Amino acid sequence: MEDVGQILDSLLAVVVVAVLAPLLLGLLPRFAVPQVVLLLAGGMAIGPQGADLAAPQAVQPLADVGLGFVFLLAGYEIDQRLARRDAGRKALLAWLLSAVLALGIVAGLAALGVVRAFVPVAIALTTTAFGTLLPVLRDAGLLRGRLGAYLLAGGAVGELLPILAIALFLGATNRWVALASLAAVGVLAVLLSAVPRVLRRAGRVARVVAERQHETSQLTLRATVLLLVLLLAVTDEVHLDAVLGAFVAGMVLRRWAGAGAPVLEEKLDVIAYGFFVPLFFVYSGMTIDLRSIASEPLRLVLFTVLLVVVRGLPALLVYRRVLPLRDRVQVALVTATALPLLVALAQIGLRNGTMLAENAAALVGAGVLTVLVLPTMAVALHRSRPEPEPEHGRASAG
Predict the structure, then answer these.
(1) In the chain, which residue ranges form alpha helices assigned H by DSSP?
(2) Are 226 and 233 in contact (CB under 8 A)?
(3) Which of 20, 73, 218, 272 has its Cα between 20 and 30 A from that of 265?
């Protein structure tokens, strides 16, 4: 009974933080920070190194589902024709330049003895918090037009390719097992993509699904949750492969939805952003090692600068011919924002003993700073954009 009481007490504290974060932003409109920062800060406040009102392990299973929803929604947002478009090709080139830059910098840090976990840190510097940024970018109107296409492409590539790299290089002790895992997830995705066609042939089943997707049944939404939990269960042997599974689930789901995508997306927003996703970020705040950050503040500064340099500089160069300077700076700021994968990479490095505790804490702390500062700067640049001159004004002038 004590365990049940601890779980309920921890869940209560987490839900209180999840409610207070948007309420505070609503009451203080000039307090312009992304909601995720308040959720992380609230997690730090109630966690073991704060007021100790909640235990991370008590809410970890729900937080894992929340992490799954973060990446499911990120995968859902990806246009699968991305690679055939200029925005997708440039995003891929920018990420490859970031990877080369990260490898060179981390090699130097390893030679100096600053870094022990070469691969996890190098991958960490190439990540983008696409799932975390989606609500911020959507609310600010940054996903519309030409700039929106490049932001979506840069964010998607900056999340998908590091996930693949993590699954390949860190997700299993045996490289062939890792490749087999990736192949299995791909095969499962193809099989799941065929389910709607099978249902259409089974006319009665299709009618039942159509009739029971609203009101109390919510069959489509329940099937979505089933898809997510199924892929998380299949890839659960290694936590980061579960992230890949959730990302693939989102891409599959986009194909499933078809004409019903707007309705399903609204329902996913409710269940994900209404409960599971904020719970994950509060949990992440509870697990941050504040003492290590306080004892090694220069590491925090170092990794924050490196995240901006490694992801930002290639964006400024690659998009030079297609975007004006203001837009390129916005792409650089957005793609340099990282957090969920940093949390996962830090946990992997600590679990297998390859990452120094102070580097794990500094990486997560740097991710928090990028989420706090960089999207806010990108939104401010967007809002300060000069308004286009009205058409009738130009006509009368002539």
Answers:
(1) 2-27, 35-46, 56-77, 86-111, 118-124, 130-140, 145-169, 175-193, 195-201, 203-211, 219-234, 239-257, 261-271, 277-287, 290-295, 297-318, 325-335, 340-351, 357-383, 391-397
(2) no
(3) 20
Tell me the pLDDT tens digit for each residue of 149-162. Answer: 899 889 888 888 88
Tokens 């299993």 belong to residue: 172
Is-contact 17 64, C-beta < 8 A? no
Q: Are 231 and 245 in contact (CB under 8 A)?
A: yes
Q: Could you tell me the two tokens for 252?
A: 């599959």
Cα(129)–Cα(52) distance, rounded to whole angstroms?
28
Question: Which domains are present in the chain?
Answer: 2-385 (1.20.1530.20)
Return mean pLDDT, the chain: 77
Model confidence band, residue 4 (pLDDT cutoffs 50, 70, 90)? confident
Torsion of Cα atoms, 175 then 177 then 180 then 186, to 10°: -90
Crossing angle of helices 130-140 and 145-169, in 10° steps, is 170
- 197: amino acid identity, one letter: R
> Tell me: the pLDDT tens digits for 170-199?
654 455 555 565 566 566 656 655 555 555
The answer to whether 292 touches 49, Cβ cutoff 8 Å, is: no
Copy the structure tokens of residue 21: 């974060």
Q: Tell me 386's DSSP state.
A: P
Residue 397 structure tokens:
């002038």
**Residue 272 — pLDDT band, cuts 50, 70, 90?**
confident
User: For residues 193 and 257, what is the distance between their CA atoms, to the nearest angstrom?
Assistant: 10
